[in-house]
Amino acid sequence: HQSKLDFFCKLGYGKQDICKVLESLGQEALEDDVLKELIRMGSKPQALESQAQPSPLKLVARGSCSTSPGSKWLGEDEGDSSDHLRPIVIDGSNVAMSHGNKEVFSCWGIQLAVDWFRERGHTYIKVFVPLWRKEPARQDSPIADQHILEELEKQSILVYTPSRKVKGKRVVCYDDRYIVKVAYEKDGVIVSNDHYRDLQNENPEWKWFIEQRLLMYSFVSNRFMPPDDPLGRHGPTLNNFLSKQPVLPEPKWQPCPYGKKCTYGNKCKFYHPERPHQAQLSVADELRAKIKVPLRLGKEEEQCNRSP
Fold this sequence. Notes:
The chain is α/β, with parallel strands linked by helices. The protein has helices at about 1-10, 15-25, 30-40, 45-50, 90-100, 105-120, 145-155, 175-185, 195-200, 205-215, 240, 285-305; strands spanning about 90, 105, 125-130, 145, 160, 165, 170, 190, 215, 220, 225.
């Protein structure tokens, strides 16, 4: 009795369940019978019971590194629409001067561009403007709707590039370098009509990035309008250009320009509508196939005539 009790205890069953089964079956019961009775009673080993019970949730400090990879912070939305959209870096001076017809620094143009990307669902939007634009407007550098810059700065969208005065002269840092550098590090999109040729010659990696990630635009009656084909007619669409995971279009068969006169046969890469269900053979193979068919029919007729 003690040996059987120890055996089933090692398997993980409780002593009370084992004693009940041994009392009902007797001490001479076989181990298989005892195991069947334990299973019939619904008794489970302690290891299986611990696996079946869900583990209690653990509260972890928000700044700790001990969180599991699958855990998310409180307040995070699982279906965040911005996960598949690229970050946006706007050349504020270029956009504002374009909206002001290259005469006035129009801050309203920056607001129109930011609103357009917000409506699409982009959450990372940064606008770079030189710091001296916070100064009062002058005749040689007029500025309109300057209060918009303060509002965008409060929303952590606008970033001022540094500038200072040395002996009455203004020393301005190169804001284009900030724009390209941040967009390159974030793997985002640059919104500007400037080609940044000096920066392209400076760094070959920036050259490729500017060529592939520069989004140009136009203003039509206070409407911010980027092109539907940012990289040309044969390039990606605007939605794919602004997405991290572009959606490839379904392949479409282009009809052969030669039609029935095509001599490429099965090597032709175009679609032939006159033979949709036939293998695309060369002209020589088609002629051979047509010749073989009547010859076979003639031989079959001769055999039928010879037979009694």
